[in-house]
Amino acid sequence: MTRGLPILTRIREAQGYSLRALAAKVGMSYVALYRLECGETDPRLGTLRKLAKALNVTVAELIGEGKPARKRARR
Q1: Who is most buried in 21, 22, 56, 66, counting CB within 10 A?
Q2: How far apart are CA 72 and CA 75, in angstroms?
């Protein structure tokens, strides 16, 4: 069993997504997303990329590495 992705849970909840809503947005079942968050399964890189894109964060942020991305200034 893995350690899970608690940061994913925090980001998802902070952005107001339910498990079902985020899972639907990235094309996976909410049970699969729940298992990722709890650490029952390890995510594939493609899944992490889809989740990161949907949440507008980096993959590194989802797995708890690196600093949050800075918002780029508009010119």
Answers
A1: 22
A2: 9
Which residues 6+ apart lie within 8 Å of 42 measured at CB?
A: 2, 36
pLDDT digits (tens, 9 = 90+) for 15-54: 999 999 999 999 999 999 999 999 899 999 999 999 999 9
Q: CB count, 10 Å around CB of 30?
A: 14
Q: How far is CA 14 from CA 45, 46, 69, 74, in A?
A: 23, 23, 16, 24
Which two structure tokens, joined as six digits, stand for 56? 């507008």
Q: Is the separation of the CB atoms in 26 and 51 below 8 Å?
A: yes
Tokens 């909410």 sit on residue: 30
Residue 64's pLDDT band (cuts 50, 70, 90): confident
- Collapsing DSSP to helix, strand or coil, 10 comes out as helix
